[in-house]
Each structure stands twice: as C-alpha cells, then as structure tokens.
UniProtKB/TrEMBL annotation:
Keyword annotations: Cytoplasm, Histidine metabolism, Hydrolase, Iron, Metal-binding, Zinc
Cofactor(s) annotated in UniProt: Zn(2+); Fe(3+)
Top-level taxon in the UniProt lineage: Bacteria
Listed name of the protein: Imidazolonepropionase
EC assignment: 3.5.2.7
Length: 421
C-alpha cells in the first residue's frame, strides 16, 4: 500500500473553500463540486476537482481508492469550544435543573464547576488521558477532526497544569488535533470568595507564567460573567496573557449582559463564545473587529435558555462558529447532530451557514483557518465521507450521525461500514 488516496465519484464535494473566516452573507457559500475527486498525498490534500479534471491525468493503480459514489464529502468538523478533559460527573445536577434550580444557583451552592474541580484534582494524569481518549473517539464518530479543549477544572497551579498536560498527551497519542486553551479563571475557588482580584493576580503571577514556560496553551480564556469575573478583571487577565503570547477567547454574555462582546472586540480576541445576551453594539463591534462569534446551542438547550441571536449576529456581518461546549455540567454531549438540529431549527441558520460554522469558521475560531476547515489544496487531509448523496441530508436526518468514514491527516481513522461488519 502506498501513501496516496484517491476519493472518487463523490456526488458532492462540499469544500467550504477558504483560508479565512466567512462573515455575514459569505456564510451561505459552500463551494460545492458535483461529481468530485480528491487526491491525498501523505497528510495533505494534493488536488481537488471534478472527476473529469482529476482522472485524466493520473494512473488510478497508484492510489488507494475510496469510491464515494452517491455520497457527499465534507471537511472534518471542528469542535471549537469544549471542556473535554475533566474528572467526575454531575448527573445529579441535571436532575436538580429539571426541578427548577438554575445553573448559577447550583454553582452558588458549591456544585457546578467547583464540583468538577474537586473531582479533577483527585484524578491522575493517566486517568484524565484515558477519559479523554474515550470522549475523543466519540467525537470522531461524529466527524470531528480538530477539537479545542480548555483547562479550568483546576483553579490551582498543579491541577491546571495537569489538565493541560493531559491535553498535550492526548494531542500526541490521539489522531484528533487539539487546540489547547488555558481557562484558569473559570470560577472563583472557595478560599478566594470576595477576593476575586486576588485570585486574578494569583493566576497572572503564578499559573500563567508556568503555562507559557511549558508551552501548554495557545489561548487564554475567562468566564466573564456576573458573579464570576468582571469585565475589568477579565481585561487584566487577557492582556497579561497577550503580553506572554497567548491569544484571547472569552466566555462572554452567557447569562447576564455585562459587556463581554465589547471587551472581546476591544482587546482583539479571536473568538467570543456563548453570547446569549450580547448587545447590538457588542455584536457590531465584533463584526468590525473580526471576532468570531462561537455559538453553543447545546448549552442553551440543556439550560433551557433562549438561543443566541444567530440571525442578528450573521446579518450584522459577523462570522459565526458552532461548537458543542462538551462539559460535565451545562452541556454533556459530543453530539454534532444535536448542534446541527438546534442551529437549523431554532436559530434560523441555513444549512449552508451551519456547515460553514462547523468547518471553516470553527477553524477560524481557533486561528487555524489556514491549515484546516476546508477541502483546499495544501491543507491537512481531514475529510469526512457522509452516507448520503447531498449535504442537505445531514440536518434532515435529525439527531443522527451521517458520518461513514473519517480521514484525519491522510489516514482512515473511522469506518462505519467496517465497524458494522
Ligand atoms: N459557562 C461556563 N463554563 C462552561 C460550563 C462548565 C461547567 O458547568 O462545568 C460552559 O461553557 O458552559
Ligand atoms: Zn465553555
């Protein structure tokens, strides 16, 4: 066997072509090739085009052939906001929420993020890695080939570092690529209650330098929220992180509108995430400053909150990404089909916008749109073959994965047909 793959006869190759975020009305363009072919050489896409263009110049015998007749082929999905590495579970909180106790109230009672922090402190590095492998395998089955993963269940030096080291190890041993984010300011630990400024200083002076020294993260994130960290505290942390080379992300305007979208724009964040309560002004500023709006419909669904105003955000000229927010509290799911169903049915996003939001704009949300997120020559060969002929079957098969084969870095890593055999 050689290292060249030919995917041929695809009814549609949905390229999502581009090396930058797609903003506003650009999100409706998918760049579909009918009767398409893709040539993969090693870990990269060498050529993409129609069968007529590609097949005339090659000797098919030199290739491992994947026949995609009656199938549609898309870039691998990018899950650009997750908290996938954690210890313990919080099933009892789901039940509490069903009984009407809300997410922030559970947090105030010592549950929520604090509860996962205690379990993550107790877990060993190896246990976190093993749990991570299981969850990443599940993500692959939904067609995900790149994942952003945050710390934030440590809130102290050793556990934050342990979480980030687990992600580094997972990035090394698992086919999925992981973009690592330091979220040391995810909650206020009990001993810092009322002393949030001191906690931010501790993160800036003690944890951040170690994260940077050990090259454990590309981004710094913060839960900028009423009763968690204020806009001023978030600004101070993110600017300190920027000085040390970390790019910015924010959990912004999720529960209460406090100006997170505005802060993201002011400091040049790569993305602002959640945005359920973002103001018109904040949205306009994000569009002007090319901040990707990462929307997490699974979380709004699970918390029974109103969805983010995707329509207004796109129509204001923003780039929207969609992600699962996979975490043990507000949204315990790896399900891309759930995200697609919610985006199309309840956020009034078109199918085309939804697919771009999970591919090229997901890549832009982690600053990787130049290497992943589309089927373009020279990009990583991260490609998913779906079992239906056209991309509109993907939302239509509600809540069910249409993924048949996943190719990551030029290697077949998931094959539903073989698994069924
Ligand atoms: N909102 C803050 N952080 C996470 C939830 C974390 C948790 O509840 O464990 C989120 O993005 O939804
Ligand atoms: Zn989150």
């Amino acid at each position: 066997m050689n290292n060249k793959i030919l995917i041929k006869n695809a009814n549609q190759v949905v390229t999502c072509s581009g090396s930058n975020q797609k903003k506003g009305s650009e999100m409706n363009e998918l760049h579909v090739i009918e009767d398409g072919c893709i040539i993969i050489k090693d870990d990269k896409i060498e050529k993409v085009g129609t069968s007529e263009e590609i097949l005339k110049d090659i000797d098919e015998k030199e290739y491992n052939i994947i026949d995609a007749k009656n199938k549609c082929v898309l870039p691998g999905f990018i899950d650009s906001h997750t908290h996938v590495v954690f210890g313990g579970y919080r099933a009892e909180e789901y039940n509490m929420r069903l009984k009407g106790i809300d997410y922030m109230e559970i947090m105030k009672r010592g549950g929520g993020i604090q509860s996962t922090t205690e379990a993550t402190k107790k877990a060993t590095l190896e246990e976190l890695v093993q749990l991570g492998i299981k969850r990443l395998d599940s993500m692959v089955s939904f067609g995900v080939t790149t994942v952003e993963s945050k710390s934030g269940y440590g809130l102290d030096l050793d556990t934050e570092i342990k979480q980030l080291e687990a992600m580094k190890k997972l990035d090394d041993i698992h086919p999925i690529d992981i973009s690592k984010t330091f979220l040391g300011a995810h909650a206020v630990p009990p001993k810092y209650k009322g002393k949030e400024d001191e906690f931010i200083d501790f993160i800036i002076e003690t944890v951040l330098p170690k994260v940077v020294e050990d090259d454990l993260a590309e981004f710094c994130d913060v839960f900028c929220e009423k009763d968690v960290f204020s806009v001023e505290q978030s600004r101070k942390l993110l600017k300190s992180a920027q000085k040390l080379g970390l790019k910015s992300k924010l959990h912004a305007d999720e529960i209460v509108r406090i100006g997170g979208a505005e802060l993201a724009s002011e400091i040049g964040a790569i993305s602002a995430d959640h945005l359920l309560r973002a103001s018109d002004q904040g949205i306009r500023m994000m569009a002007e400053n090319n901040v990707v709006a990462t929307l997490l419909p699974g979380t709004a669904f699970s918390l029974k909150e109103e969805y983010a105003r995707a329509r207004d955000i796109i129509d204001s000229g923003c780039a929207v990404a969609l992600a699962t927010d996979m975490n043990p509290g507000s949204c315990f799911t790896e399900s891309i089909p759930l995200v697609i169903a919610l985006a199309t049915l309840y956020m009034n996003m078109s199918i085309e916008e939804t697919i771009n939001a999970l591919t090229i704009n997901g890549a832009a949300a982690i600053d990787r749109a130049d290497t992943v997120g589309s089927i373009d020559e020279g990009k990583k060969a991260d490609i998913v073959i779906h079992e239906f002929p056209t991309y509109d079957y993907i939302p239509y098969h509600i809540g069910v994965s249409t993924v048949e084969k996943v190719i990551k870095n030029g290697k077949l890593i998931f094959d539903k047909i073989k698994n069924e055999a």
